[in-house]
Every structure is written in structure tokens, then in C-alpha cells.
């Protein structure tokens, strides 16, 4: 790889060049991001997952750039038009846009107006005009009149010459760069409703007559306008003022003041309208779409990370209820490992209203299966079912917990669910998913397409490949950060373990089914087709809780077992003693074990693991309860203070479940008493918060909430003036549209 790339990446990420080159070598050797950041700190200089992933992604971009550069050089060389000066420019190009600008004059074209004019022999006339020297233009043009070549008069000759000049201007790399900058820096998005579609396009009402700067337009509005255009409700323009664009072009091209100059000016106008503006608008659209995608994906992945790392209840006996009215509530009992023990249905609500019978069954099952917690889905009839369960007088140690059921129906109809429960219907599978989410959100949510979990922003509009890659990275990071119990993990969970993937994950499950639980990490090597490389990448993230070797229960990598055993031996102790005794661990001087391949970062990680082997980095589970008596939107009153749970975070605020089957929005301006530019600064998914109701619209099912200490104080008080103005620019109805987004009206 080009050594200049190492230097470029190092400068961009503010790390050393050697850190970049060594990390790339590990990546090229098949190492994963979690493995590198956890077990190769000495090699990378302790780069974290984010930095390693950034190096991986950037080096791929640069390699793609080099590949395109080689193709362009070959194409121009084959045309015998490659000069040393052009070759230097192509080799110096740092972006794909710059490369394509240089290649444009040499790129094979379809038959254009300029091509036709050249075929008529008009290029010499175009060259004379473009020089903008004082000449007898009429006389020069008359010389090119030729009936056989379909140039009937001087004006036709001049038109052909102008077509050629317009193409030259369009292919000027310097001009294109400046025009691109003008579009981005000075351009505006202008959105208007297509006449006659006002009623049909009502959800895009904010954008019926809307204009804002391209460079500052937030991602959610860019994606909303593009969707409105795609659905044929909006007309969307994205360009600067035409007078500014023409002035820029004339400043670079015009160099005289005569009849030829007038012809060049006509060519400039034609070039802009026919060639350059459409080209630049396409480029800017792609650029702003990519930028909006990146922002939306960033929001989505951060939400997903927080959701996946939600606090687990742990290995407890759980009753899970998928609530409903007419069809009843589907009920399952799960063992501590999530195994299905019993399934049934109860009908405590209208129209059947079998309250006594349903209550007796619940009590019986709680006692029979020694249930520790009852998980209730937060969908239709969720709050009513919660009230019913709490009215039964169950032992106080039995927890009653509302669980976010987004995506449970997707899981229940999936191939994964059919594999797990081939003899049960969708309703049973859905209830199982709700219960398992309470026990271990990460282990259950990896079975669902992340796009269906309900924490995204315009996830169906963004680049699907980029979204998938980012989500896969996030899931893999979470899975490996927590660690996986190899004897109980599902195939889906094992798939995300560093170095495995679907095929090896299935092989592990098959081996486990045929041979019983793994007794040691060493035994994992016996899994078919799981070679040394895969074992190296995966072993440290796999746990075996009942293993004889206590290190098999930890995140200490097997390659360091010998080192830990030496530490124990040097103080005349066993490894198990080191784990139990802080005093013994205190006797170990880490500097005595530093070698060329093992430095203090790894040694410190080992000591932390010995202190808490296999520790779960997730927070401890806490029970949350909604406000009693507030079950539907009609129960809400402005000014009411309520407990809630953050369910989704976007660039414009956070959605909060307050237990009324409709999430409310805490707008960015209401997240805190201070100015907040990024919601992630103050809230996280699954965070428990107190909110104040500031607006209730029953007809449109929209709830406005606030986390301010005094949400009804004078609007904007204490905020920076410039920020307030920026906020006031936002469409007045945007809040309502965003509220609708969560439930699918705006996110497909």
C-alpha cells in the first residue's frame, strides 16, 4: 500500500503512522476490530474500536481511489493522450470527484452537440472564438458555411462553435471544483408542493414552500424532502443563485471584451443550464444524501448500541405476556436459560372479561414455575394487563416489568423463530421474545433485523449497504464487549462473535448438541472447520462458566494462560487463588512480566479480569413503573409530570414512552435547561426520565413533552441568540411530522 496513505490516515485520526501501518497489517491478516482493540494493544498503541474501525474504513476508501486512479490512467494512456503533467495531476488527486473531473475530457461519451459540431469541422472556429482576440467574427463564421456538412449559414456555424466551447467549459477541472464548492457553500434546498397534490401530500406540509441552506440542512429534513420528491409530492431544487454561478464562470473563462467574448458568454449560459448545473446538482444531491445517511446511521447505531446493552434481568424464571383485548393475552413461562416451559392464553379484558379465571391461572403458574418476574409487552392492552397483574396480590418479590416489544412480531414470523419453535404459532413465539428480552436484551435482539427494532431515523431511506455494515459493526462490538456463554448461546448470538460467522456458529451448536456442553476453551478447537485463526479471534470472547480452568470463564485470552500461571507460581499460589484474593494480586509486580509482545496495557487488562472474571459490563437491572392511572392519551393533562423511558433518539429530540401506547417527543429545545446541540449529550435509549406534558393532540395522536425544570418559561430564554434564530427557522409543523415518524408514518 502507498506509504502516503499511512501518513494521511495518521494525520486525519491524529495517531502515529506506525499505529496505522501495524493496524492495517493486522486487518489484512484477517483480524477483526474487536480482537485488535482488545488483544493487540501493544501492536496498535492501544487504539480503541472506533479508531481501528476508522482505519479499516479509510484504508478501503483510499484503496478504492487508487483502483479508480489506475483505471483512469490506463484509459487515457490507451488513447495516447497521457502527458506527464496530466499524470502528475491524476496521481495528486485526493478525492473521487477530483479524479473524475480530470478524466471527464477523456471519458468515452455518447454523441453530444459538441461531437456533432466537431464532425462538421467547426472546432477551429471554436478555438478562435475561445481565444477572445479581436477578429472579424462574421467573416470567420462565413468560412465554415457548408451545405454538405449541414452548416447552412454563419449562425449555424457559431452555434456549433458555442456547443464545443460549452463542453470545454464543462470539462474544466478547476471550474468544476469551484462550482462544486459554490453549490455546497451558497446553494439552497428549495422545496415546493406539486400543484394539485396539497391534500394527498399533507404529511409533507412543512415542505410545501420551504427553503434552507444546503450546508446546514439537518439530515432528517434532507431525507424528508427527498422522500417527498420520490413519492411525487414535492419538487426539490438544490442549487445556488444562477447569477452567482454565472459570475463565477465568467470570472474564470472571460478574458476579453469583444464579439468573441459575447459568444463565450452565450456558451457559458448554455453550459451552465444544459451541462454544468444538472451535473453539479446531481453531485451535490449525492453528497448531501451521503452526509444525511451518515448522520442518520450514526443516530441509529448509537441507539442500537444503547438498546443492546440494556440491563439484563439475568437467569431468572420469567412469565411473559403478549397482551391483547379481543384475542386475549398470550402467556408463556420460561426457565432461567430462556427455555419454554408452558404456554397458555388468558382473557382478563373486554369482551370476554374472564378476570377470576385468568387471575387463578396466573397465580397457579407463578407458584408452579417459581416465577421471579413477569414481563408484559408495552403494545395494545399493555397497561391494562399490567394493572390486572398488579391487582392479583402476587408475592412482592415477583417483579412486574413493562418490556418494549418493538420487533417481537418480526421475530415471531422469522426463520429463526421457526427453527427455535417449529411446533408453536406466532403468538407463542412473540411472547417468548418479550420474556427473553427482559432476561437478556442482547441475546434476544440479535435475532431481529436491527431495522425492525424501532430505534432508527429514516432507516429505509439511507444507503442500505452502509447501514448494514454499521449495524453489524455495532452488534459485533456489543456482543464481544459483553462476552458469550458458548454452552447456551444461540446460533445468532455466536454469529457475531469475532472470527466466527454463521457457518462456524452453526457448527458450534451442532457440536454442542452432539457432544454435550463444552468443558474447556481448548475443546472448541474440535469444532469442524474451526481453524487456528478463527480460534485465535474468537476464544477470548467465548465463556465457559462451568469450566475447570477459571480462566475459561474470563476474558483472558488462552494465549496468555501460561503467563497468568507464571504469575501465580511466582508468588506460590494457584490461578484460582489470584481470582479470590486481592491481597495476592497486589503482590504481583507487572513490570516483571513485560516482554516484546506483552506490555502494560495487556497486563493491566489481565489483572482487571482476575479481579472480576467474566464481568458483565452492562448496568444492573432496575425495575421501572409507569404512573398509575395514566393508561391512555385521554388521561394526559398539560402540566402533568410523569416517569418515562427513552425509546428512540433522533437529531431533533428524544421519544419517550409514558405508558399510553403512543410515545411523546421531547424536542431538542426541551431536553435540558441549557442549549443542547446533540441529544446524545443528555439522554440514552432505555434511560428512565421524568417529563412534563406540554402538549396533547388527541386527534392526531401527538404528545409534546419536556425535560426542562420549567418548560412553560418564556421560550428561548437564556439561549444564544444565533442558536435561537436557527431553531426558529425550523418548520413549525416539523414537530408533529417527527412524532408521526416513530409509528411508521414517516419511516416507512
TrEMBL record:
Residues 158-185 form a coiled coil. Pfam families: HHH_3, HHH_9, S1, Tex_central_region, Tex_N, Tex_YqgF. Keywords: Coiled coil. PROSITE patterns: S1. Residues 707-734 are annotated as: Disordered. It comes from the Bacteria. Residues 639-708 form the S1 motif domain. This is Tex family protein. It comes from Echinicola jeungdonensis. The lineage of its organism: Bacteria, Pseudomonadati, Bacteroidota, Cytophagia, Cytophagales.
Amino acid at each position: 500500500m502507498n506509504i502516503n496513505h499511512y501518513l494521511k490516515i495518521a494525520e486525519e485520526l491524529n495517531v502515529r503512522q506506525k499505529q496505522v501501518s501495524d493496524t492495517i497489517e493486522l486487518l489484512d491478516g484477517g483480524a477483526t476490530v474487536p480482537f485488535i482493540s482488545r488483544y493487540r494493544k501493544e501492536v496498535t498503541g492501544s487504539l480503541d474500536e472506533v479508531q481501528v474501525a476508522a482505519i479499516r474504513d479509510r484504508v478501503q476508501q483510499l484503496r478504492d481511489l487508487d483502483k479508480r486512479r489506475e483505471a483512469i490512467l490506463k484509459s487515457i494512456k490507451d488513447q495516447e493522450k497521457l502527458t506527464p503533467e496530466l499524470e502528475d495531476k491524476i496521481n495528486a488527486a485526493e478525492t473521487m470527484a477530483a479524479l473524475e473531473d480530470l478524466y471527464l475530457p477523456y471519458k468515452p461519451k455518447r454523441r453530444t452537440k459538441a461531437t456533432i459540431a466537431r464532425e462538421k469541422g467547426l472546432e477551429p472556429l471554436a478555438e478562435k472564438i475561445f481565444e477572445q482576440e479581436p477578429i472579424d467574427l462574421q467573416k470567420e463564421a462565413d468560412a465554415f458555411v457548408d451545405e454538405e456538412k449541414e452548416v447552412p449559414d454563419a449562425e449555424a456555424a457559431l452555434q456549433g462553435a458555442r456547443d464545443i466551447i460549452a463542453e470545454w467549459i464543462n470539462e474544466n477541472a478547476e471550474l468544476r471544483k469551484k462550482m462544486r464548492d459554490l453549490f455546497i457553500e451558497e446553494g439552497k434546498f428549495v422545496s415546493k408542493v406539486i400543484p394539485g397534490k396539497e391534500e394527498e401530500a399533507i404529511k409533507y406540509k412543512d415542505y410545501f414552500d420551504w427553503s434552507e441552506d444546503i450546508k446546514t440542512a439537518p439530515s432528517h429534513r434532507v431525507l424528508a424532502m427527498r422522500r417527498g420528491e420520490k413519492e411525487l409530492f414535492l419538487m426539490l431544487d438544490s442549487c445556488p443563485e444562477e447569477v452567482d454561478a454565472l459570475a463565477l464562470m465568467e470570472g474564470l473563462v472571460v478574458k476579453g471584451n469583444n464579439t468573441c467574448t459575447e459568444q463565450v458568454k452565450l456558451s457559458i449560459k448554455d453550459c451552465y443550464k444544459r451541462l454544468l448545473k444538472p451535473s453539479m446538482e446531481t453531485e451535490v444531491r449525492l453528497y448531501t444524501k451521503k452526509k444525511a445517511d451518515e448522520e442518520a446511521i450514526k443516530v441509529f447505531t448509537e441507539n442500537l448500541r444503547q438498546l443492546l446493552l440494556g440491563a439484563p434481568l439475568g437467569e431468572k424464571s420469567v412469565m411473559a405476556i403478549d397482551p391483547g383485548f379481543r384475542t386475549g393475552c398470550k402467556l408463556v413461562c420460561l426457565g432461567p436459560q430462556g427455555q419454554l416451559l408452558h404456554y397458555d392464553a388468558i382473557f382478563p379484558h373486554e369482551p370476554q372479561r374472564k378476570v377470576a379465571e385468568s387471575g387463578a391461572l396466573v397465580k397457579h403458574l407463578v407458584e408452579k414455575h417459581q416465577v421471579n418476574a413477569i414481563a408484559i409487552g408495552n403494545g395494545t392492552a399493555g397497561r391494562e394487563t399490567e394493572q390486572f397483574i398488579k391487582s392479583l396480590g402476587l408475592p412482592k418479590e415477583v417483579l412486574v416489568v413493562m418490556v418494549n416489544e418493538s420487533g417481537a412480531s418480526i421475530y415471531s414470523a422469522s426463520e429463526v423463530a421457526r427453527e427455535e419453535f417449529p411446533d408453536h404459532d406466532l403468538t407463542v413465539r412473540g411472547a417468548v421474545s418479550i420474556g427473553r428480552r427482559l432476561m437478556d436484551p442482547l441475546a434476544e435482539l440479535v435475532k431481529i433485523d436491527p431495522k425492525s427494532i424501532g430505534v432508527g431515523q429514516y432507516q429505509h431511506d439511507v444507503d442500505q449497504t452502509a447501514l448494514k455494515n454499521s449495524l453489524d459493526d455495532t452488534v459485533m462490538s456489543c456482543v464481544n464487549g459483553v462476552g458469550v456463554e458458548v454452552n447456551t448461546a444461540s446460533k445468532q448470538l455466536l454469529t457475531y462473535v469475532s472470527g466466527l460467522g454463521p457457518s462456524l456458529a452453526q457448527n458450534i451448536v451442532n457440536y454442542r448438541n452432539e457432544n454435550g456442553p463444552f468443558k474447556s476453551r481448548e475443546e472448541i478447537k474440535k469444532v469442524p472447520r474451526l481453524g487456528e485463526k478463527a480460534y485465535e479471534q474468537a476464544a477470548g470472547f467465548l465463556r465457559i462458566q462451568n469450566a475447570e480452568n477459571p480462566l475459561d470463564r474470563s476474558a483472558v485470552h488462552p494465549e496468555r494462560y501460561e503467563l497468568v500461571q507464571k504469575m501465580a507460581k511466582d508468588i506460590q499460589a494457584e490461578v484460582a487463588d489470584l481470582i479470590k484474593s486481592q491481597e495476592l494480586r497486589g503482590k504481583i509486580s507487572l513490570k516483571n512480566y513485560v516482554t516484546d509482545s506483552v506490555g502494560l496495557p495487556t497486563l493491566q487488562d489481565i489483572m482487571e479480569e482476575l479481579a472480576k472474571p467474566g464481568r458483565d459490563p452492562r448496568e444492573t437491572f432496575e425495575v421501572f413503573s409507569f404512573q398509575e392511572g395514566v393508561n391512555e392519551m385521554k388521561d394526559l393533562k398539560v402540566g402533568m409530570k410523569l416517569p418515562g423511558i427513552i425509546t428512540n433518539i433522533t437529531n431533533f429530540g428524544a421519544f419517550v414512552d409514558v405508558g399510553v401506547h403512543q410515545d411523546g417527543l421531547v424536542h431538542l429545545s426541551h431536553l435540558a435547561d441549557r442549549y443542547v446541540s446533540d441529544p446524545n449529550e443528555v439522554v440514552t435509549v432505555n434511560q428512565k426520565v421524568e417529563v412534563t406534558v406540554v402538549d396533547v393532540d388527541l386527534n392526531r395522536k401527538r404528545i409534546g413533552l419536556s425535560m426542562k425544570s420549567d418548560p412553560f418559561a418564556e421560550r428561548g430564554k437564556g439561549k444564544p441568540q444565533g442558536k435561537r434564530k436557527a431553531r426558529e427557522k425550523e418548520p413549525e409543523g416539523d414537530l408533529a411530522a417527527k412524532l408521526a415518524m416513530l409509528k411508521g408514518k414517516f419511516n416507512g
